[in-house]
Each structure stands twice: as C-alpha cells, then as structure tokens.
Design goal:
The structure is a homodimer of 329-residue chains.
Chain A lengths: L8 H13 L13 E3 L5 E11 L10 H18 L3 E11 L5 H18 L2 E9 L5 E11 L14 E5 L4 H9 L8 H12 L5 H7 L5 E4 L4 H12 L2 E5 L7 H9 L1 H10 L5 E5 L4 H11 L3 E8 L3 E5 L17
Parallel strand pairs in A: 3-4, 8-11
Antiparallel strand pairs in A: 2-5, 3-5, 6-9, 6-10, 7-9, 8-10
Helix pairs in contact in A: 1-3, 2-3, 2-6, 4-5, 4-9, 6-10, 8-9
C-alpha cells in the first residue's frame, strides 16, 4: 500500500510501540521474533485474548486512546475475575485504510496511560493492514500463586452471589451514544457514556478475593449470562433478585421513568464488573476485602442446587428475559 | 446477526473449539474467562502473536484447514527460531458474514491436525463476527530452559550465516497461484503452491540449535530483510552470496529460464525457514544438529563488523535489491 501517508510497519513499531516495551523485561525492544517471560517461582500464569472491531465493539470515530484502553481493559477484566495480577500483554493491530499516523500515535498514548495505571508492560505484537474495519486483538498475561486462580467452576449451593460496582451503566451509556435518553443532563450522559467507552477492570478486588471467592466471572455478556456461565461450570443454579441490583444514580433515574430500561441494562453486558460467589460464613471477610480494594459490592442472590439462572422481578416472581446475553452472532 | 445460518458463539465454541482444548492442562474446557499456565520450574516462556487476514495473507477461497494451519504455523515458526518448544496457543477468530459452520468445522480440523503434529494444545480464544474479511490472530507460547532462547541480537563478526531448507519456494508458489509460470508440470506447481499455503516451521532444528546458534530469526519478511533484523539487533553486518542460496529443483528450473525470478524468490518472504549465525568453530556440531533434526542447512555467508546486509550476485558484486523485504504497508 505505497500510497499510505505514513510510515511503514517497522517505523510504526519503532516510533510508537517499542517505547511501550522499553521497560518490559523480555520484550527485547520488540526487535525479535518473540518475547520472553520469566515466570516467578511457584506462580501460575493466567492468559486471555479478546478482539475488538470498529463498528462492532466500538464506534469508528471513538477517540483512539479510548479504543486502546477498552481493548486492553476487556482483557484485564478477565484477569481480574481470576484474581490474577496483570503483567504483560501482546497487541495485534489490523489497520484499516483510513487510519492515520496520528491515530496510531494516540492509540499508543492510550496503551501507555493504562500501562502506567495497571503496572503492565508490552511484550510483543503484530501490525498488519486490513481492507476491513480496524481491529485490535490483545492477549493479556497475569500471575497468581499456583492454584489460587479463581475459576468459574467452584460455586456451591448455599453460596451468596455478589457483584461489584453498579450494573447497567455501560448499556445505558451505549444507549446515550445511540441517541436514546435525550433528556439527561450532560454530566450524567457523559458519565454513562464513559462507562461504555472505558471499562474499569476490578483488578484490586480480584486480588482481594483470592482464597475467599468460590467462583468468579467478569460481567461482559450480561449479568444473567455470565452468572449462567458460573452455574454451568459449577453444576449449580443461581437465583438473583432485581430488587437488590446495584444501580448508579443515573440508572436509578432512568429506571424511574422507564422500568424496561432496567432489564435492558441488566442484560446489556459490557459492565466489566466481577460477579462472584462465596460462603455466607465469609460474608464479613468478603466485605473487608472489598473495602480494602475500594470497591462497592452487593449481595444479589444465592447459589442453589439445580441448574440455570433465575432472575426474580420486583414482585418476587421469575422474569422471562428476552435473551440470555449478548451474542456476537 | 440473527440471519446467520449457523450456531451462536457459545455453540461454536462448544462444538468445534472446546474439543481442541479437552487435553490442554489449564484450558478449563474453554468455559472460563482465561486459561491457566503452570510453567515448569526453571523454564522461560516464549510468546508471539500474528494475524492473518483473508485477501492479505491468504486467499479468500483457500481451504479452511490450510488457513488454520498457516495461521498457527507462522507463529510456531517464530517460536522455532527462538529454540522454543511449542506448548500452547490462543486463537482469536473474526468471522466474516459469508463464513459457514462447515468452514469453521474444517478450520478446527486444521488446528487439530497441527496440534497433533506439533504436540500443542488450545488454551483459550475469542470468537467474534466482523463485517470485514475473515481474520485469525494466534498467540503461541513455547518453552525453553531459562536463558537459552536464541535471540536476534547475538551475532558476532566472524560468524557463519546459515539458512535452513530452501529459499524462494513460497514466493514462487504464490506466483503459481497468481498464474505466473504456466509451463510448470502439475506436480511441481503443486509443490510450490503447498510451500506457500502450508509453511513448515523448523521446530526440531530450533531446539537442536540451542546453545550453538549465536542469533536466529525466522524468514518471513524475506531473507535479506530478516538477516537485516539480525544485523540491526546485533550491531553487525551480514554478507550473503546468491550463488550459495539453497534452491529447490523447481526453483532451479524456474531460475534457469528467468534469472530475475531468483531475486524475486530471495526477497519474497514467507519461507518460514530459520536464518542463523554460529561460530565457524562449531561448524561440525551445527552440521550434526541439523542432521539430527532432519533438516538441510546451508552456509550462505558471513557476519562482519559494520551494519546492514549485503547480497552478492553471481558475479561477486553487491546487488542493489529493489526492496528491503515484505512490508504490510
């Protein structure tokens, strides 16, 4: 693509990505075929990969630094839910024809900001040109002491079910971006939009829940769907109560005017909170762990024998939810 | 995308990808947020990621099992060049609208075949729908004893320069696919095409070169370009001799009719051979290592003080090469 207006592949890597790897042990300045990882003795590595695509997972005109941060954070959220400490990431970037060098520079700035925020380093990557939409695939690697990763499969009947933060803001934020909820104050609209654009992976909470949570998952497909993954992996049933669902003040305000918005928010996904289960005997320790992590948690239900997820409405009767969570196709 | 004719994301994973992870320790049946890796004591992990895109890195109508194998093998080739033993991989698959379930099934068959061939296991992944061309990003993880990965940066003046296998077949194979060289016998054309479609990562050779090769890189961008990466990372110059270039009999035959084809082949890339340097004192051990790996190697030049790569033509004079290697943009 000789008519591209910016530097070639190697120049892009040298200018914008090698500086992100300068302090990463084993990244070899991004000048080698691969990166090297020296695992700490007695540790287990936790690995996850996620792709985000323009027009599917983010808007084609979203600020590039926020695209970078979202691409990274959806992966860090997976690590957080496993109780892993994020360490390293690899980024595979497929550049659409319209992408400019300024876009790449701003994208790298976003990665830099989150490297600093989460204490992680770039280990390697790949840069290609695509005739399709811009796509970013990030593979993130974290660390836990061996055997201490929190899995989806450990929920037991009798466990309490918790979720961190508030649920539905990202889905409502997407609604704001799509022009729904025109009556919102600018500040409120901004806050919701931000929740959609830049998720907040609950890393500190995940670390604090090691040895306490029986099972955990990050809330990306929608709370009932993600609890469904825990239920299926653990061979149990989960019952949650919409009346106990933690909503932000803006979500409360929208819900007051439009009760169906609560359900949309509940199943909308993209929350990147942690849903987890733990023994009622550990309720006090769980509360302390969350407080130490500076994250609000809410008990929203209970694990029972059986299978599937039941969501109780405000009248205490099970809701028939329209879909079981976000599906990519 | 409700009009898709096949199963949803979770069904696709359960049907075609979870079976590939069934024997992978730590993959948790692909039912969790992330995969777990328990590094062997004293080992170093080697990580690489590469994206292949329909219409860019492979033909939109290429057989899906070969697409899978190429996507995997370009990564295994990076591990091989570092002397790493391949262990695990994650696959992020972006499905274009026209992709059918049969395509995905055949793609998974290709992964299965190479898992068996290379003794690796699927650790995790992501499946998304894209409005653009099909894309596959694979992240591969290998293992070496700590400190034994072969880097690009260790070449020293006086080293011999070697390359494995033969050079140029893949570039000629792409030419065959594009309708050049119409006079070739079917068998010859098939062989060249195959070299383009399914690279042969030199894993056994990479393992045998640990402790012997001073520097190594896989040949993907084109031999002069990849030797240029070694020269730059090592702070040395590399001089190679086209007269010593290992060509396959089909490449020899094409070169006999069209000398410019040799140059195109030399710089064409996609060879996925290993280029490496080693002390002349170790020439005998290098020969034994290659023999033990069952791979032909050829001494093609020498490392000198200085910088850059010089390619000598058949008259012993430096060639002015038209480009310095394949660039994605």
């Amino acid at each position: 693509m000789a008519d591209r207006t910016f530097a070639g592949e190697f120049e892009l890597i040298a200018r914008y990505f090698a500086p992100l790897a300068a302090k990463t042990p084993g990244a070899l300045g991004l000048t080698d075929d691969a990166g090297l990882i020296s695992p700490a003795p007695g540790c287990e590595l936790v690995a996850t990969t996620d792709t985000v695509i323009a027009g599917v997972h983010f808007g084609p005109d979203d600020p590039p630094d926020l695209v970078a941060r979202k691409a990274l954070r959806v992966n860090l959220s997976d690590l957080a839910a496993k109780g892993a400490e994020p360490r390293l990431y690899l980024v595979a970037l497929s550049l659409a024809p319209a992408i400019t060098e300024a876009w790449v520079a701003a994208f790298a700035d976003g990665l830099r900001a989150d490297q600093d925020e989460f204490g992680i380093g770039l280990l390697g990557g790949d840069t290609t040109a695509t005739p399709g939409p811009l796509a970013v695939t990030i593979t993130a690697l974290g660390e836990t002491p061996a055997g201490q990763a929190i899995r989806r499969s450990g929920a037991r009947p009798g466990d309490d079910v918790y979720v961190s933060g508030t649920i539905g803001d990202a889905a409502l934020g997407l609604g704001v971006i799509q022009g729904r909820y025109p009556g919102l104050a600018d500040e409120v609209a901004d806050r919701l939009r931000r929740r959609y654009l830049v998720p907040e992976p609950r890393v500190a909470l995940g670390l604090a829940l090691r040895g306490l949570a029986h099972a955990a998952a990050d809330v990306s497909d929608g709370l009932p769907a993600d609890l469904g993954h825990i239920a299926a992996a653990s061979g149990v049933a989960v019952v949650i109560d919409t009346a106990r669902m933690p909503l932000s003040p803006p979500a409360e305000a929208i819900a007051a005017g439009d009760p169906s918005a609560v359900i949309s928010a509940l199943i909308g996904g993209d929350d990147y909170e942690i849903a987890f289960t733990a023994s009622p005997r550990d309720a006090r320790r769980i509360g302390k762990a969350a407080a130490s992590a500076g994250v609000r948690i809410t008990s929203i239900g209970r694990v029972e024998a059986g299978k599937g997820v039941t969501v109780l409405g405000s009248d205490g009767e099970p809701l028939a939810l329209p879909v079981s969570g976000y599906r990519h196709f």
